[in-house]
Amino acid sequence: MVLNELGARINGALQALSKEPVIDDKALDALLREICGALLESDVNVRLVQQLRVNVKKRVNMEELASSTNKRKVIQNSVFDELCSLVDPGIEPWQPRKGKQNIVMFVGLQGSGKTTSCTKLASYYKRKGMKVGLVCADTFRAGAFDQLKQNASRAHIPYYGSYTEADPVQIAMDGVSQFKKDKFDLIIVDTSGRHKQEVELFAEMEQIAAAVKPDNTIFVMDGTIGQAADAQARAFKQSVDIGSIIITKMDGHAKGGGAISAVAATGSPIVFIGTGEHMHDLDKFSARPFVSKMLG
Ligand code: GDP
């Protein structure tokens, strides 16, 4: 079930509750059954769904709440809060600081939208007045540097890469030191994605991280992958210190489960979502507006 459908179904269940003449345990159970069913169909991890059910039931005390109006309100609020907490680990996301040379490293599987998101983020901070540079440390995929070069040129963002150097760690170090020397505020390092979670990919990420010492590592994940999200996010978290998450392709057939699993598996906050292929298709993420919008 895609995100819009998930929102519509939860909303439908909440609306059905407001039409119930009597709000009792039976009505609450029916609501939770519908909401939890919808979450499971959206690939949200079963343990998290179970937790949501328990938390809502804990907050709603049928005997203490006098009127049905009160009960409805408490139930609606607690469902809303629980949905928010699924996408909010309660951590203040890292932000580049003015007056400092901030280094950000991107990690993620090939095809996740990593290179596109690098340029989107660079462009976002450029619009905020920062001097931003992009480093292409992906020597694995033929054409990776050309892609970054093309995207960066279109956005008028300085870039660094090499057609001759084969060592991604060397490129990352050279690019970062070049931009540091030129007093850049934000240096974004794109790393190789490869198509699978191979041992070599994680070893390479660790080496690049050790060499450039990023202030923040952003994990990019395709929002349409559903059930696979949990294992993927866990695997990345084991190798690198994930600071924040960007979920891409939220304009397409994204299910809610992908984003929710990534947060649960890493304990890191989603900072942006990708909402299209163009440069400006990047939305700042915060849990409450996201859930409100999902519910329509
Ligand atoms: P990488 O291999 O992880 O670097 O992935 P790319 O940045 O090359 O992106 C893979 C494909 O996904 C490209 O066709 C992008 O245009 C597309 N893409 C990236 N982000 C988004 C997004 O937020 N929405 C949509 N619809 N497409 C995206």
Automatic annotation (TrEMBL):
It is an enzyme of class 3 (hydrolase). Keywords: Hydrolase. Its EC number is 3.6.5.4. This is Signal recognition particle. It comes from Coemansia linderi. The gene is SRP54.
